[in-house]
Automatic annotation (TrEMBL):
Name this polypeptide is given: Phosphonate transport system ATP-binding protein
Domain spans labelled ABC transporter: 20-260
SMART domains: AAA
Entry keyword annotation includes Nucleotide-binding: yes
GO terms for MF: ATP binding; ATP hydrolysis activity
Provenance organism: Magnetospirillum fulvum (Rhodospirillum fulvum)
PANTHER family, per the entry: AMINO ACID IMPORT ATP-BINDING PROTEIN (PTHR43166), PHOSPHONATES IMPORT ATP-BINDING PROTEIN PHNC (PTHR43166:SF6)
Highest taxon, organism lineage: Bacteria
Keywords: ATP-binding, Cell membrane, Membrane, Nucleotide-binding, Translocase, Transport
Length: 266
């Protein structure tokens, strides 16, 4: 198996080229069983898009990968780190993981640079009144440079365009120097034309930084553009795993079945 093999994941085997391996993962939220026995490996250095209809468990899967939700059964293994049901590996996994958000979760009255620095907030005392350490400021400037926004570092975030705000959100994730980048609909508030323009840039940024990326994407078109691999969920189960060019009409009908319309009776 090469690092770029897209054959179905061997969930019981941890391959060195996998960044995360889920085996028989069941997740419950409140009274509902949401994910049912997920077997899935996420290849290192690749972009995986999670797609599926509303309510199938996409956000739940991302929160589970993040370590925010603990499965009621099954395991999540991070090669060279450990299993996420152990507190030590879980802490290390969370340190290596960054998240990008749909609304970018930026503070408008702060500068772009200060918003990026917030990505490091957990690395200093929460009540610190001291200025950010020079090393952190240098890292934040580097992250802004990485997304092509260094020239806007001191601009108030409220004056930035939608695409620029999205880049600040990505820089705030990058400043943590993560191995794993997770996103729940990170491009939802960016104009589709802009997403098309940014996708090549995003892909080369991911390759430059050696990131493993998992994104929930509502737009299939965006998933095809951005991802190396698509995971389609149906009712909390994996219904498709493969490269975008294999996500054909049959797969699309399986992952996005037409709603069954009730036939009115007299
Ligand atoms: N905090 C919660 N407590 C109880 N049930 C929840 C909670 N969050 C989500 N659920 C339920 O879990 C199921 C899956 O939700 P989830 O948000 O993972 O789906 P999704 O595929 O991301 O949906 P969407 O595309 O609409 O965002 C849904 O039935 C939802 O109602």
């Amino acid at each position: 198996m090469t690092p770029f093999d897209d054959s179905p994941p061997m969930a019981s085997t941890t391959h060195p080229a996998d960044a995360l391996v889920l085996t028989g993962v069941h997740v419950r939220r409140g009274d509902s069983a949401v994910l049912h026995g997920i077997d899935l490996a996420f290849p290192a250095g690749r972009i995986t898009a999670i797609v599926g209809r509303s309510g199938v468990g996409k956000s739940t899967l991302i929160a589970t990968l993040n370590g925010l939700i603990r499965p009621e059964a099954g395991t999540i293994a991070v090669p060279n780190v450990g299993r996420l049901d152990d507190p030590g590996p879980l802490r290390e996994h969370r340190r290596r993981t960054a998240t990008i958000f749909q609304d970018h979760a930026l503070i408008d009255r702060l500068s772009a640079l200060d918003n990026v620095l917030l990505g490091l907030a957990d690395q200093r005392h929460p009540l610190s009144l001291l200025p950010w350490p020079e090393e952190f400021r240098r890292r934040a400037a580097q992250a802004l440079d990485e997304v092509g926004l260094l020239h806007r570092a001191n601009a108030r975030t409220s004056t930035l365009s939608g695409g620029e705000r999205q880049r600040v959100g990505v820089a705030r994730a990058l400043v943590r120097r993560p191995n794993l980048l997770l996103g729940d609909e990170p491009f939802a508030s960016v104009d589709p034309t802009l997403v098309r323009q940014m996708s090549a840039e995003f892909r080369s940024l991911v390759a430059r930084n050696g990131l493993t990326v998992v994104l929930v994407l509502h737009q299939l078109e965006t998933a095809r553009l951005l991802a190396d691999r698509i995971v389609g969920l149906v009712e909390g189960r994996v219904g498709f795993v493969g490269p975008p060019d294999q996500f054909n009409a049959e797969a699309e009908a399986r992952i996005f079945p037409s709603p069954v319309l009730a036939v009115p009776t007299e």
